[in-house]
Amino acid sequence: MTVIQVLGCILFPAVALWAGERYRVARFLGPVTLCYMAGILVANLPGVKLSAEAAMRVSEGAVPLAIPLLLFSTDVRQWPRLARPLFISFALACAAAVLSAGLVGWFFRGQSDEWWKIAGMLVGVYVGGTANMAAIGRVLEAQSETFVLLNAADLAAGGLYLIFLLTFAQRLLLRFMPPFTAAPHHEAFEHPGERLSVWTRHHLRDMGLGFGLAVAIAAVAVGGTLLVFGKLESSPALLGITSLGIAASLSPRVRGLTGTYELGEYLLMVFCVAMGSLADVRLLSGGSTTLILFVWGVMGLAILIHVTASALLRIDADSTLICSTATIYGPAQIGPVAAALKNRALVGPGLTLGLAGLALGNYLGLLTAWGLRWLAG
């Protein structure tokens, strides 16, 4: 069953690309959304028991290889032009996570003895990622059952928000936010479902070279992390992978490889299938309603505060959505959301901000938890 599960994660994105090319509904939803929905559907079929460990292994292997592939076609020279609105919106997203967790946590302070720990863990996950939530939970000595339920509720809420980001979000925000102004030589790119033409034997050589370079970059970054820290630390390893990917993109020969971006997106679709398979709603049905409302309240309020503040400061819709993606999902979903926005220019900066969130998540989460405990006396 585990072998079938892994093969399904690897092969279903090809089916999603094929469907996106031929069927209107599939094209509207997009291959990324189809992959995520497929994982969720299989995880919740009666009588089906998937391996959470296998899903995590697949997701952990796909992201480090996808990041450099996405970066190879990036023009780093344009990043300074994008920095100001992205930086402001990212700071607003981090502040919104802290504020929403504090407010919702204070509201639920009488419902759980671990309310301040939960608030800190949710700041960690909505500034950085699941790894931050787990690390903060260990530092604060939160119960393991609390982490499992928080993670399940986060996957369910995050899945719904991701579908919104990949479908209607841009159109909704453009009603009251300015559009993104791209650099002159940055062209909007098509949805992955409309780029099957790149998957031909004429491009396989370039894609193979790009994949080999991505493997080498991941190996160097992981090896360096093991050498320095004595164990594998995700944040330094991802930072190393991103830095080496950016360095490689400075080479015109690397930047000229065709199909590397699409190959990176394929790996991210593999990630989406694997992560969707972890969203088992049966975990929520047996859990505390208070904790589920806690998670959904923090996430919803954080998004609302962030979007409202960005709109008041006249930050464009695309930058706001990329910063929301970087904080709530980390680097892994930047590529799919940028594809849905048809805005390749924000991929590199978005990945960088996602990694910044991973670095800041632990600090802000712990400070929030300890601050709430101090206020409560």
- DSSP E strands, number: 0
Query: Biggest β-sheet, characterized?
Result: none
- The average pLDDT is 83
Which fold name is given in CATH as the topology?
A: Na+/H+ antiporter like fold
Gap from first CA to last CA: 51 Å
Query: Which range does the strand content fall in?
Result: under 5%
- Content-based structural category: mainly alpha
The radius of gyration is 20 Å
What's the level 1 CATH class?
A: Mainly Alpha
Q: Percent of residues in helical segments? A: over 70%
CATH architecture: Up-down Bundle
Runs in which pLDDT lies below 50 for 5 or more consecutive residues are 183-196
Number of alpha- plus pi-helical segments:
18
Shape: globular
Count of the separate structural domains = 1
Helix-strand topology string:
HHHHHHHHHHHHHHHHHH
What does this 3D model show about the protein?
With 377 residues, this protein is mainly alpha-helical. The protein has one domain: Na+/H+ antiporter like fold (Up-down Bundle), CATH 1.20.1530. 76% of the residues lie in helices and 0% in strands. The longest helix has 30 residues, at 347-376.
Short description:
This protein is mainly alpha-helical and 377 residues long.
Summarize the helices and strands and which ones pair or pack.
Elements lengths: L1 H21 L1 H6 L1 H13 L8 H20 L7 H29 L7 H13 L2 H11 L3 H24 L1 H5 L27 H29 L4 H16 L2 H4 L4 H17 L4 H5 L3 H24 L4 H13 L4 H8 L5 H30 L1
Helix pairs in contact: 1-3, 1-13, 3-8, 3-13, 4-10, 4-11, 4-13, 5-6, 5-15, 5-16, 5-18, 6-7, 6-15, 6-18, 7-18, 8-15, 8-17, 10-11, 11-18, 15-16, 16-17, 16-18
